[in-house]
């Protein structure tokens, strides 16, 4: 088994529950009592449009916004898909704030503390620095570092984003392991030379153009594969 010095974590959907946060915020919007409102469908549509907008940034077809800007634009797009629910400015502010208050999956905080005893544990994310910082503080979590792609020249899943993350850590890609629940994230990290650790996802994801692999990788395609964070810790750190 490879010996890694640092772990880089995806967090949106891997560590933080974006869907519950959005659905909760929708329950506090002016149109919350509308009988036809499908909160799950709204959340999925917004998440999907976020990646559509991000794809344009990655292809250099749009200005390199931060994820907060991308989410605001994506929310405007999604509002047109749900015309029966007129969104006020206060609703938009409430929904955008939901990304800064995402709950953590309960099994992650104790895993983070154990992993930090053995590795440098940092975030490598397309989300903004503020989103990760605020959501982490809201859940009482402290990372060794946060690397947001808004400060890099590329966004994941471009190979350069993973390499720039390794450069920020002053480590060779072979010394860094990417941890995520999204196969596309891990396979792109692997192709850039990083190790990979796959956690079985707790959330479904929308069908995102350009972000779906033609064939699902097998567990043996990753350096580590675990059904949950407790199992990953045991595999990477041993039993306490």
Uncertain residue ranges: none
CATH class of the largest domain: Alpha Beta
Listing every helix as H and every strand as E from the N terminus to the C terminus, the arrangement reads EHHHHHEHEHEHEEH
User: If classified by CATH, what would the architecture of the largest domain be?
Assistant: 3-Layer(aba) Sandwich
Helicity range of the residues?
40-55%
Please, how many domains? 2
CATH superfamily of the largest domain: HAD superfamily/HAD-like
What is the structural class?
Answer: alpha/beta
Q: Tell me the CATH topology of the largest domain.
A: Rossmann fold
Structural overview:
- By secondary structure, the protein is of the alpha/beta class.
- The chain has two domains: 6-17 and 102-237, 3-Layer(aba) Sandwich (Rossmann fold); 18-101, DNA polymerase, domain 1 (Orthogonal Bundle), CATH 1.10.150.240.
- 42% of the residues lie in helices and 11% in strands.
- It is built from nine helices and six strands.
- α1 packs antiparallel against α4 (89-98) and α2 packs across α3.
- The two termini are 19 Å apart.
Annotation keywords:
240 residues, alpha/beta, Rossmann fold, DNA polymerase, domain 1, 6-stranded parallel beta sheet, 9 helices, 6 strands, globular
Gist?
42% of the residues lie in helices and 11% in strands. By secondary structure, the chain is of the alpha/beta class.
What is the topological layout?
Layout: E1 6-9, H1 18-26, H2 39-58, H3 67-81, H4 89-98, H5 108-116, E2 120-125, H6 129-138, E3 145-148, H7 159-169, E4 176-180, H8 183-191, E5 195-199, E6 224-226, H9 229-237
Helix pairs in contact: 1-2, 1-4, 2-3, 5-9
């Amino acid at each position: 088994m490879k010996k890694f010095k640092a772990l880089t974590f995806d967090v949106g959907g891997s560590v933080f529950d974006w869907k519950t946060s959005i659905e909760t915020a929708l329950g506090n919007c002016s149109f919350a009592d509308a009988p036809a409102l499908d909160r799950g469908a709204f959340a999925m549509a917004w998440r999907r449009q976020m990646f559509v907008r991000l794809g344009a940034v990655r292809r250099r077809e749009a200005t390199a916004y931060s994820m907060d800007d991308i989410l605001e634009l994506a929310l405007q797009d999604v509002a047109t898909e749900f015309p029966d629910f007129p969104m006020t400015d206060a609703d938009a502010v409430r929904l955008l704030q939901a990304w800064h208050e995402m709950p953590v999956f309960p099994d992650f905080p104790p895993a983070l503390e154990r992993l930090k005893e053995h590795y440098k544990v940092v975030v490598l994310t397309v989300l903004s620095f503020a989103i990760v910082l605020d959501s982490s503080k809201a859940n009482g979590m402290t990372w060794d570092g946060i690397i947001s792609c808004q400060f890099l020249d590329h966004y994941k899943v471009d190979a350069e984003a993973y390499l720039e993350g390794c450069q920020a850590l002053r480590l060779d890609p072979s010394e860094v392991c990417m941890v995520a629940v999204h196969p596309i994230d891990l396979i792109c990290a692997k192709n850039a030379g990083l190790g990979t650790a796959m956690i079985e996802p707790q959330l479904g994801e929308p069908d995102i153009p350009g972000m779906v692999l033609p064939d699902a990788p097998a567990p043996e395609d990753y350096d580590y594969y675990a059904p949950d964070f407790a199992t990953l810790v045991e595999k990477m750190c041993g039993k306490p």
